[in-house]
Fold these 2 entries.
Entry 1:
Amino acid sequence: MADGPTDLLPAEDDPAYQVFIDSLSYLTPEEIELVREAYLFGEEAHRGQFRQSGEPYITHPLAVAGAIAEWQIDVEGVVAALLHDVMEDTRVGKAEIAERFGNPVADLVDGLSKLDKIEFQSQEEAQAENFRKMLMAMAHDLRVVLIKLADRHHNLQTMAAVGAEKRRRVARETLEIYAPIASRLGLNTLFGELQDLSFQLIYPMRARVLGRALKAARGNRRALLSKTLEGITDKLKATDIKAQVFGREKSLYSIYRKMLDKRLSFSQVLDVYGFRVVVGDVPTCYLALGALHELFKPVPGKFKDYIAIPKTNGYQSLHTTLIGPYGTPFELQIRTAAMDNVAQEGIASHWLYKDSESFGVDLQQKTTKWFHSLLELQSAGGDSSEFLEHLKVDLFPHEIYVFTPKGKIIPLPRGATAVDLAYAVHTDIGNHSVIARVNFNLVPLATELTNGDRVEIVTAADAHPIADWLNHVKTGRARSKIRHYLKTAHRDEPTALGEKMLGQELRALGVAASDVPVARWKSVLRDSGNRLVKEVYTDIGLGFRLAGVVARRLLSKEHPPHLSDKSDSSLVIRGTEGMAVQFAPCCQPIPGDPVIGSIWKGKGLVIHTHDCPAIRKARRARPAKWIDVEWAPEPGQLFNVRLLIMVQNTLGALGKIATEISSSGTNIVTINMDDKHPGLYTTLRFTVQVSDRTALARLMRSLRRIPEVVRIAREQGLPA
Ligand code: MN
């Protein structure tokens, strides 16, 4: 293009680059400067690399960043789009990107590189669903998905020089994975384009033939179309309704699918015309509908009000089918400009739509707000369960997704180990696992897994579960399977473990196990309902009874312990009869949380949740001191739990929340409000009393429905 010495300079005079820079007018001058730097950085990193079409590689990130700018996504998104391939294709690392452009950009680029590494294995519907969840989990920041979609869009547009087989593979993957994601996010324009481009790559002949036929057919019907359009425009004008009227073009791929799925002929498919009327506000939508129903006769049963009851992805519009001139039916959509924006750009319209309210709010909050507005729409009517299911991964980031060697994706709670995975795959695999291979490295089974890990479990026929695994599992499934195994198949091991644990406790109290008088054992057996001493050992080994408790009772003079010795909470944890039990203030366990305990002088048994960060060190230092315990709550008991609720700073938000909490029958113990930083959002801290996790989940769900609530979470960790 350019000649002479300019060839050696970064292509700042390249028209494509100029158009791109011009499209950034929604950013500040400082931000545009940063984008410029990112371009120069990316250009240099990719220098000497070429697309298969022969163009310099930087043309690709430039096009992707251009699409991101078109959605008016913030500067971090644009910069990350420019750099999205540098980690993959050049020697630039995450640290360097972080240093030059900040951590958020580095995280975005890193997230994109990780997405690229995922090979889509199976074409089954279920797998695609998992893949989508995976995407959402990795992209707790939606910008990753948006950049990925723009990347895929540009790749499809520039596939002419790529080999036929790869072309078809990429196109098929797009139809199965990326197009549905675009659709789910409501990016309908992009959705249609991804489909049509893929269709052309997989079936070039069919696409050409169909395209030609479509063009011809539209030509033939031009008179009919313009007559209908004219009728609509005139009628609206006569009724004093300001509106824009569009003819609706169907995508090639949707016509093809319709012919295939419904076995329709080409002319049957084409007989369905479409028009779209865009007006100023919601009341006008209904006015326009009334006017047009007057002009053309509606087809009964075809009217749908997606304004009152929006679709799950937030889509809103009125749909009706009318009988046009010469008796030809056509479809009509009526909606406001804002709804039209959402209909075409979906989640991205959120960035495009700059209202004063969301200005300056950080992206995570914006995203949450978008989801929230959708949830709110859902609660207005319609079935929200499916929708919630898909959003679960975003609203509850407590899950990770790992791969089996066969490419199956398994969801696990955060903090889960290879033992959990083994049992999630199959009980037999769990019961015979020996060691794990995580991302091709051998590691102990107790290793905590992270999102996206590829995990292989090595098994051996004569291997079996050991009691210590109970300290390293997070899932109820693994826990109960291990307990079941230990109880039924190999009683010896927990028995030996229990005997050892009891021996240690007794020694700590200054007595050798052999010195315990038989009379004391008899008394303990009578109280516990066991026949044999061995059974008590087994119970201890399995975590049903606590060694410390049994030891103290073996040594206590009076028996059974007086009722007055019992603290109330001792009824809540199984096997603690007669012992003081306390719940740690740091994590505030409630029934349903996996819990462990440890005996402290003067405090008795202190209970923490399994994932309590305050005890991580202490657990690692002396694992034997910690005992896996189980809940056995009495009905009617209540437990304190802290909630952190971020709300829009409007009058009455606090009142609404407090009312919702108490009307659900929950006690409020304390309320704290962070009013040090007055702004759009305020953080409220509640301590409330609930009976267990289920009750807490129910309460949080009902609070999420309050429109002012932006974020809600259970707060754990040391109280501020
Ligand atoms: Mn790329």
Note: Residues 164-184 form the longest helix (21 residues).
Entry 2:
Amino acid sequence: MTKINLLNFDLKHMRQFFTDIGEAPYRAQQLLKWIHFYGVTDFEQMTNLSKALRQRLQETAEIVAPEIILDQPSSDGTHKWLMQLNCSNRIETVYIPEATRGTLCVSSQVGCSLNCSFCSTGKQGFNRDLTAAEIIGQVWAAVRTLSKEEGHHDRHITNVVMMGMGEPLMNYDNVLAAMNIMLDDHAYGLAKRRVTLSTSGLIPQMQRLSKESPVSLAVSLHAPNDELRNELVPINKKYPIKDLMATCKAYFKDEPRRKVMFEYIMLEDVNDRPQHAKQLVRILEGVPAKVNLIPFNPFPGAPYKRSSAERIDAFRNILIASGIHATTRKTRGDDIDAACGQLVGAVADRTKRSVRWLKKITTESSENL
Ligand code: SAH
Ligand code: SF4
């Protein structure tokens, strides 16, 4: 009999599980606390459960998180972990410590089907969705690993961003369950503003999410007009900028003080000129927005260069002069390729698109010899 992995369950699903086996629903809170707060995986240690229930769970259930098989610490305190899933699948999770917070960048899929032209995950093609256990398991494993480190207390993950590998809204149900656990006071108790979902702009799922989860929203915009965005973020052909902006405008309509974070990757001579900044100001008119400029992280075979610091500053100044709150993302963990959106490393992957991509870059590099 295959055992049920209780790491998959948020409060609602955990309650359902206990009701289904004829147990009291309040057991759900107890289990969430044991698993996520105390990090206990052995039912025998769950002392407030009856002996009979412990025995029963031992036989039918399990608590299994992805296993960290490689930990790459960077000189600036950033960690990149390679995590092993079942079979040959691997994902990456990044931890970025700062003075007042610690951010974990979590993956939602193995690969991604959306094929943005500047994204190394997109170049790998899509392999599969992660289960809720594999998504929240990244947080679980990171908390456990960091708490073993010297000088770390056990609550150092203050923020989670769904900005690792994959498009989280293509894996809606599992991502929602995992984020529910992040917010749950019995589990990680993160504030809603400190959990951020980043999407390339899947409008129907965004509309659903705005009703079903209170987390913060980041939208990967990257271009101020449809022509350019169609090229950089191909899903724009299905969900163009005008509709996307209308969706963003309505997103936090019941919470007027919240803003959507727009991510804008800075690609030299592609989308980084003053005229692009001015266009961006126009399309953001009336949208509660802040903008985060992301210096492009190059990867082998990438067809772009990172914009210069001067270009990025000039771009940001145009936004600021128009009253838009704009920041530039610090690049961290450069020595280990650990920036969000740059999670490719040693990920084993055998999709067709990645084979085509590898062929292309090997041919191009041999042509350059
Ligand atoms: N699929 C989601 C979330 C994962 S990507 C999305 O697209 O929003 C997380 C962020 O990393 C996105 O803003 C993405 O555009 C950015 N990113 C992807 N490739 C990058 C690269 N090479 N350099 C810098 N940022 C990158
Ligand atoms: Fe997928 Fe996001 Fe990368 Fe685009 S940027 S390919 S949506 S992971």
Note: Confidence is low (pLDDT under 50) at residues 344-352, 354-369.
